Amino acid sequence: MARKTKDLAEAYPAACEAAKCKAVQPFVGALTRAVDAGAELTFVRLNGNSKELFNGRVDGKGAAAIASALTGTDTVEELDLSYNRIDDDGAEAIAQMLAKSPAMRRLDLRGNEIGPEGALRIADALASTGSSDDMPGAASTSCSLESLRMDGNPLGDDGLIALAHALRTNVSLRELNVGDCDAGIKGVTAVCVAIFEDNDTLRSLGMENPRLFTHQCEHVFHAARMLAASGVRSLRLGKWKIDSSGIETLAGYGVGASECLECLDLRCNAICEVGARSVARIIEEGETLRYLNLERNKLCDAGAVAIALALPNATRLEEIDMRSCDIDDDGICALADGIAATEPSRRPRVVRLWGNVFGELGRRRWHRLIEQSAEVGCPIACDFVVTPMDATHGAEEHMAVARLDVPDDVAVNAWDAV
Length: 418
Prior knowledge:
Distance between the termini: 34 Å
Strand content: 5-15%
CATH class of the domain at 1-195: Alpha Beta
Number of strands: 14
Order of helices and strands: HHEHEHEHEHEHEHEHEHEHEHEHEEE
């Protein structure tokens, strides 16, 4: 029988007693407030980094009690248990809850202690088709999860391989993040191949910082092939050791062939001024591309010039991030000129360049560009501000540059965009 919030409040104390753990007070408070107000609880957010839980994070037993209470809920759609101390046993209890709670849509387990075994249990729930053979004790229903974040858990290759197997049959998941999970080329390849061969429903994928010891970039080929054949719109490949050869593969076989890629995150790779020519191709041929992150790649001035020349040919690019890319004033000027040469309605509305070298000429070019774009009704939000300084004693007026935060309501979010 489906559980309402009142049922959850009554079930939780018994679940804590059965799991031999203390009740999580923020969860108790949320249940109590909802019941007192005669409302239904639609989300549970128990982030371990919060002030309330920082010194009392949820462990495996605590997660098992919460999962037990939530089992069968038809009101709670989101469960955030990020940055806690949940282990494989806790993950197994959460998986059992997922198989019996079709209302659950979003699950955030990032930053926990879930290993390959726990990932296998979660994968079993994702692959569940409603048969009791899929998971012991499962109700005759399918998991309907749409968003799963498991980044920052030691899943390893075996964990990613298990999740890849689930992706071959799962039709509900739209967002998956398995970055920084101690996985190597086997796990990364398994996920890419599974999506390429059997999954056309996933829209957002994060696999940052895998443990790669190859210099051949064969993992990039699998990612490119996946992009070309799937419906993935947002892809995070930060810290993938992508070099000039790898970015050429991604541009030619992936982005150029993709009909739906909107957000591409390539931060902290090994893309240099040679690889920038392939980045330029991505900008020109990515007809649906809205967000491009190149932060902390050594593009230098020559790379910035190549990218600047491509900007007028971009179709939908709304945000570009080139922070800390070893760009000096020549490159800064070239980027300003490239955007100035772009039709105002098609200019990026967010540009991030902090961490590069702004000379006097570059500051003047950007000050003029920002003012001119605002005048024509197409303002550009930058992560820096250029301010004219009053000249003294007959000296020539000069420009000062300082860091500036881009407002959240202006930035293109690589995950929410899809």
